[in-house]
Amino acid sequence: MSEPTNTAPAGAGQLRTLAVRITEDLRAQLDILAQLTGRSATEEIRLALEHWIAKTKSDPVILQKAAQVRAEIERKAQTERAAIAAIFGGDDTTKDEAEASASPRPATRRGKSAGEQ
């Protein structure tokens, strides 16, 4: 179970607790490595996970699966946008998309300048 903690280092996201069940042998090895490196077991686990995630992010099989998941998310979003448009009419662009595509008006000042009265 994960719980938020308030011990996040500066510049990092909020840290959360994660309970992980490991064997006694693995825990003993972790404790020895932590002792040898001068870090806590928690820091050793965090570093190992960061390393594993960085390595996995460059795995071609994982990259291909991520592209497939992204494409499926886009297909689903497109279907849902079309469904909303069918229910409420109009095109399937959102207000934010419409505002982003509109050209901004130049800022004009109406009123008297500082010297006018």
Give the fraction of residues assigned to helices.
55-70%
Q: How is the main sheet built? A: 2 strands, antiparallel
Question: From the alpha-carbon coordinates, what is the Rg to the nearest angstrom?
Answer: 26 Å
Poorly predicted ranges: 1-6
The percent range for strand residues is under 5%
CATH fold node name of the largest domain: Arc Repressor Mutant
User: How confident is the prediction overall: mean pLDDT?
Assistant: 81
What does the overall shape look like? elongated
> What is the number of domains?
2
Number of helical segments with 4 or more residues: 4
H-E order: EEHHHH
Question: Could you say what the CATH architecture of the largest domain is?
Answer: Orthogonal Bundle
